[in-house]
């Protein structure tokens, strides 16, 4: 496994639509494993392939709390089959928007269909943090960030901070 560099906003690659995988082969399995390693090292609870510069519909998540058994999920071509009318609000962050957080409202439950690491079709019904996390990661595959779900005022404040942080980083490392 290898740790991959994570792309941070602003970056046009985070706004692109990712392509489905034809099947989960050795190459995609390696991508899934590398993404999990990258996510755990960050640390984070979810990561989508475009965040490591790969525009394919692949996500990994693990919402287990510290001290609990890890519960890694590797999903290719994830699709929301059904989402509840009931909503839930969670404070979200994103490895591509470091140190930025905002409350986001999403469906509280969702049924997801995906290909697992053995290329088998699976469905799960997710709720709570898992439902939010999977929906957040699927958004990445469509070029959508959590800040796209909040008010323009808050979004612009966060994006300005990130832009500034990036410029300072470039100056510091030039
Ligand atoms: Ni994210």
Structure summarized in a few sentences:
30% of the residues lie in helices and 25% in strands. The chain is α+β, with helices and mostly antiparallel strands and 174 residues long. The structure holds nickel (II) ion (NI).
Describe the structure.
The chain is α+β, with helices and mostly antiparallel strands. The chain has one domain (12-173): Peptide Deformylase (Alpha-Beta Complex). It contains three helices and seven strands. The chain has helices at residues 26-41, 128-141, 152-173; strands at residues 46-48, 58-61, 73-83, 87-92, 102-107, 109-115, 121-127. It has a five-stranded antiparallel beta sheet with strand order 1-2-3-6-7. Strands 4-5 form a two-stranded antiparallel sheet. The protein is globular, with a radius of gyration of 16 Å. The mean pLDDT is 96. It binds nickel (II) ion (NI). Nickel (II) ion (NI) is lined by residues 94-96, 136, 140. Nickel (II) ion (NI) binds at residues 94-96, 136, 140.
CATH topology annotation: Peptide Deformylase
Bound molecules: nickel (II) ion
Q: What gross morphology would you assign?
A: globular
Tell me the strand percentage band: 25-35%
- Give helix % range: 25-40%
Give unreliable regions as ranges: none
Spatial order of the strands in the main sheet?
Answer: 1-2-3-6-7
Question: What is the terminal-to-terminal distance?
Answer: 30 Å
Specify the CATH class.
Answer: Alpha Beta
What is the count of DSSP helices, taking H or I runs of 4+ residues?
3
Kindly report the name of the CATH homologous superfamily. Answer: Peptide deformylase
